[in-house]
Amino acid sequence: MRLAYLLPVRKTESNTWVLNNELTLLIVLTLVTFTIVSSQVQALAFARVILGILCVVFFPGYALLALLFPTKGPIDWAERVALSVGVSIAVIPPLAYLLDLLPWGFTLYPMLGSVTAVILVASIGALAIRQQVPHEERFFSELALRSGAGYSPISPRVGLIAGVLCLVALSLVVYISLASRNRDHFTGFYVLGESGLAQGYPKEMEIGVPTRFTVGIDSNEGADISYSVVVSASDQEIGRSGDVVMEKDSSQQIQIEVTPIQPQEDAKVEFLLFRSGDTEPYRSTHLWIDIKDKGVSR
Q: For the chain, which residues make up each domain, given as ranges?
């Protein structure tokens, strides 16, 4: 395979820059996407979204079609662009299902690696096959990037489809960016029963007898944060946790030992969540429990 054929862009003798090989460009963009997505650098978030969308909804299908149809027929530019989107969308579910069966699971990095592998293998295979096809019969020989007046290397139909796809991609990028920026920061706070569900709570407690409760915290504040939990009944503290350090957007369940000190029928037992340094509760929930004298029960 000649090295000049692999160059994505070259300059002709007539001083015209041409896109020499779109598959090489596709390989480069795929590797750039893999690097940017893997790095998780916040400054590259915009590029990560744009390239990520293309890597999922266009690149795999285009590479596979280039492998299957290396010549100018039987599909033209417009059909190839449209089919690339459809084939890409069709490839993702089987990959996701396969990954779900494997030990790695259907998570970001295995999925990113699988999609990248599909694109690279299909593109390299397509390059090898296309090299065997006569130059005049190849689907893609070259595309002028700068040409003389009146010359348009792309048909109006292809330009229209490409423009629509760009608008769709741009709309998705804007929507995702705005949704991420305007996402409400919140923390979920709840009490679980013995079964690990929001049911099956104790109906009564005895004075001086510790009772264990499981409290769940779902922190979605967009930053690491420290919490503490205080349990009270009749404005008297009857239980307290230590500091609970939560990483950004994480969940944790903790055990709290509650020891009632005053009998009361149908007492409102409050669970109060405090952020580090706050004097007012950030979140709260409560249970209605009968508090009995020790040794007295229904």
A: 3-181, 186-292
